[in-house]
Prior knowledge:
By secondary structure, the protein is α/β, with parallel strands linked by helices. 54% of the residues lie in helices and 9% in strands. It has helices spanning 3-17, 21-28, 48-70, 123-134, 153-167, 178-191, 194-202, 219-234, 255-262, 274-287, 294-303, 308-325, 331-338, 352-363, 367-371, 377-393, 398-404, 410-423, 428-442; strands spanning 32-36, 40-45, 75-80, 143-146, 173-177, 206-210, 238-243, 265-268. A five-stranded parallel beta sheet has the order 5-6-7-4-8, with helices on both faces. A three-stranded mixed beta sheet has the order 1-2-3. Helix 1 (3-17) crosses helix 3 (48-70). It is globular and about 80 Å long.
Amino acid sequence: xxxxxxxxxxxxxxxxxxxxxxxxxxxxxxxxxxxxxxxxxxxxxxxxxxxxxxxxxxxxxxxxxxxxxxxxxxxxxxxxxxxxxxxxxxxxxxxxxxxxxxxxxxxxxxxxxxxxxxxxxxxxxxxxxxxxxxxxxxxxxxxxxxxxxxxxxxxxxxxxxxxxxxxxxxxxxxxxxxxxxxxxxxxxxxxxxxxxxxxxxxxxxxxxxxxxxxxxxxxxxxxxxxxxxxxxxxxxxxxxxxxxxxxxxxxxxxxxxxxxxxxxxxxxxxxxxxxxxxxxxxxxxxxxxxxxxxxxxxxxxxxxxxxxxxxxxxxxxxxxxxxxxxxxxxxxxxxxxxxxxxxxxxxxxxxxxxxxxxxxxxxxxxxxxxxxxxxxxxxxxxxxxxxxxxxxxxxxxxxxxxxxxxxxxxxxxxxxxxxxxxxxxxxxxxxxxxxxxxxxxxxx
Length: 444
């Protein structure tokens, strides 16, 4: 029997055997099996306190569990090492290959603190991020960055990773979206590679998880992330998470996970001020080595107020059209180029297309599934919400809304809208979700 299989069975025994579940989770569960040479069984732990606690408090219990599993009396050997540099197991926990279910996810070198324009509303959160990078695992752990889409949460997260990489070259840093974490876990369970999965995610010095809201309603994924969180946190490994809302507002996230996320520092990345938006545009123009007059930059900053991604996208459109048409970037040229995306009278018109995009993003499903004919529960509720919002926020009638959602008939759309109207009267979670989407739409 290989070391990994033995250790999995040992953990199951210990989980039911030990009086202290805290001790099990903090000191034993995070251990990695290294080898079984027939005489001894070696495990690796990340810090010396874990080794001392296991040897002085849990060694006999672990050896007894190993004997129950293997039928042999093996002595327990505990080593302390950075898991990434620990000896490769001889028998299992295979070395990760290029075609493994786990992919290497590193930070984007373009996203640094130097390229992040913080501005007055975000001075504190940027200072906190820098502090974390200077002393990962100790300053603020976990660090949760929340805010609406397009404000730079991912940029700031990568900036932390890049600075840690610069200051601590030997640190292992893993960036993954919540969707990637979920898919990796599903594949690991499916292919019998949970040991490999745990080894990968629990052996990092720094774990960066983007868009944590996407693991809501995924019970098994939440369970696995909870244990991954505990394993890293107990050994002072830095955890950084982004979310579109405060953890307390993620109602479909398990309470114990929300509590864990709130035990460090949680801060909001705010909408940038006018001065900050102009500074962002200047830095973007400098990056592309092109001069754009102050009045053009001011015009763009005045028109696009709530989303850095759209702000930068507008500038890129001006630059690219200037190069394609070989024309100088003047105010008239900028206005003409951006005419199709600029709001009228300062207000962007909410359309069914924008609603579909926001709802599909919120529920983490594709636009095709949202507007298609699949009637499973995962798609039915988001589709009903989207129809309700189209009815509430646009001038489209039930017939035109039905045409957008897979040629549904008028009565079907009306039934779905009425259903949501009734449900939000008593379902506070659904009401909160819809209000969040509406606020997001109105801030576009």
